[in-house]
Amino acid sequence: MANSQFDLFLHEATCPDDAVEAGLSRDRLYGLYTSWCFINEQRPGPEPQFWAAMKHRINPKHNSLRMKGPAAADYIIASYPGLV
Q: How far apart are CA 70 and CA 46, in angstroms?
């Protein structure tokens, strides 16, 4: 069975981090997803579709996830343009 876009996103752009209790906020997780889509030349799904898919994969409020990879760098640069 092929992995969905959402499964690939979680695998490539996030990783579990037991040191954090809540993990990524809803805004940061969706922003990371849109950065991942941009880098991978994928069209991001609308936010309601994203959250409908995520509720079957993670707990959006307490996901214990952190960012990783190129999507994390893209998201951080886009979120904090004063860094560059």
A: 22
What pTM was estimated for this model as a whole? 0.89
Contact 16, 65 (CB under 8 A): yes
Cα four-point dihedral sign 73, 79, 83, 84: positive
Q: How far is CA 1 from the centre of its chain?
A: 22
Looking at residue 1, what is its pLDDT? 40
**Angle at 66 (CA atoms; ends 76, 33), nearest 5 degrees:** 60
Handedness of CA 13, 18, 19, 23 (dihedral sign): positive
The beta-carbon contacts of 26-29 under 8 Å, at least 24 apart in sequence, are 26/51, 26/60, 26/61, 28/67, 28/75, 29/54, 29/60, 29/63, 29/65
